[in-house]
Amino acid sequence: MCTLSIPVDIFTFSIAINCCCHSNRVDYAFSLLATTFKRGFVPDVVTYTTLIRGLLSQQKSQEARLFFANLIKFRQVQPNVVTFNTMIDGLCKTGHADMAFWLFRSMEKCDCEPDTVTYTAIINSLCKCGLVDDALNLHSEMMEKCILPNVWTYSPIIQVLCSLKRWEEVGLLLNQMIHDMKISPNVHTFNILVDAYSKSGKLDDAKHIIQIMNERGENPDIVTYNSLMHGYCSKGQMDEALAMLSTIRSKKIMPDCYTYSILVNAYCRELKLDIAMDIYRNMASDGLSPTVVTHNILLHGLCQLGKSMEALTFFYKIQGLGHKPNIVTYETLLGGLCKNHYVDKALSLFRTIECNGLIPESDTYNIIIRGCLWSKKYDGACKLVDKMVDCGFSSDAATTSVLRHLLLSKAQDPTLVALYQKCLH
């Protein structure tokens, strides 16, 4: 356009600046800003707000704060509520809640009244910090100022009240939301409630919430049913949990990997590995590929039953199918092999960890060291302790406890004494 002498104005530049910010090229956006000045254009508040949003989207909160401060200091533009909301929301999301609250309280000095979006951002930030009483006070303040809350204002408060098991206040807030404010909870809000009630064993309350959802035309989704299924499993009501799978399908909702993992985990806890394996194999019928979490659950279940060699065979099988293990996979297997006296197998497996692009962690070392101690491989334990220390890790309470117990029975063993001293240091 410029080459062809087609006229451009501040709106053309603003559109281009917005595109650059959405493309994560805020550096290009600021180059365009400089060009607007050269051409004699005066950027408006929308242009500056776009640039602030661009900086925040690229995790450049410090630059955004400085840019915003300079706008006010040099009076380049009068920030409006959208500018403040952009800045406050960005500060909240980048962990600068104190600064966001200070900016929120400074709005009135700049002749700018906070709106629902402003209060919601601050309330959400307070709830994430666990400051639910402050959030409730702010909620009351906005009501007194006739600033109407929305579903996103209520949801974080309800969530943190649920986590604190302040059920009476949850009920009052939900009642106020639906009946007084005529705000319909969305699926996200309902899922918060179903999940909280299910985790607390209040399954009747969870089912009642699902009933309300249906009555209000909010269709439960897979997250809703997964939460209820998890609640049944936690209470050992496996028949009801398994029946949920049929309910999910009857609602034309596709189960996800988490659905199956919940069931697999529950049956493994009940030591019913055959059923857990059947459920695991049924994942393929729903077109799902098991995740590393599902595999780790099954490996743990096999190890718990003392079937550590079967677990190792299963591990090699899924690896051959292209499933990548994580460090938890290895720690689960190492723990199972060591407890079932297959320490040589555990040592061989330990040596393959780095070959698979993983780095042993503190727990990994401590598990294999304890295995060596239980099987009287003290020299091997010594070498592993040295390697662990070189990596910046130290022995945990369980490893130190094993060593102390061995020393009580074999106080004269110099290798154990030296090993104990190393662990203490």
TrEMBL record:
Pfam families, sorted: PPR, PPR_1, PPR_2
Query: Which superkingdom is the protein from?
Result: Eukaryota
What residue spans do the PPR repeats cover?
9-43, 44-79, 80-114, 115-149, 186-220, 221-255, 256-290, 291-325, 326-360, 361-395
Q: Which UniProt keywords are listed?
A: Repeat
Gene3D superfamilies this protein is in?
A: Tetratricopeptide repeat domain (1.25.40.10)
- Identify its protein family: Belongs to the PPR family. P subfamily.
Q: What is this protein called?
A: Tetratricopeptide-like helical domain-containing protein
Q: Which organism is it from?
A: Heracleum sosnowskyi
